[in-house]
Write a structure and sequence with these properties.
Elements: E1 2-11, H1 16-26, E2 30-38, E3 44-53, H2 57-65, E4 70-80
Antiparallel strand pairs: 1-3, 1-4, 2-3
Length: 85
């Protein structure tokens, strides 16, 4: 399985994290690690997400960028790693 690190910048909304996780699941990716931090003096958040799948990460990235309130999605890194089920 390939692991991918994504950086997502979005406007903070109570439902934002749920929307991101739903898209990740529906696109067939597994969340391996996640970190979220709010920006200082703003209503923006940064979500760092590590996901795993055999599928191309571009599919996930393009779907995440279509979400309301998401301003940017960057693919940071990808590594090949064995993940035991």
């Amino acid at each position: 399985m390939m692991q991918h690190q994504l950086s997502i910048q979005a406007r903070f909304r109570p439902e934002m994290l749920e929307r991101v996780l739903r898209v990740v699941r529906h696109r067939g990716f597994q969340v391996c690690a996640m970190n979220m931090a709010a920006g200082l003096n703003s209503d923006n958040i940064n979500i760092e997400l590590t996901v795993a799948s055999q599928r191309p990460v571009d599919l996930l990235s393009s779907q995440l960028s279509k979400l309301m309130d998401v301003s940017r999605v960057d693919i940071q890194q990808q590594t090949s790693q064995q993940i035991r089920a």
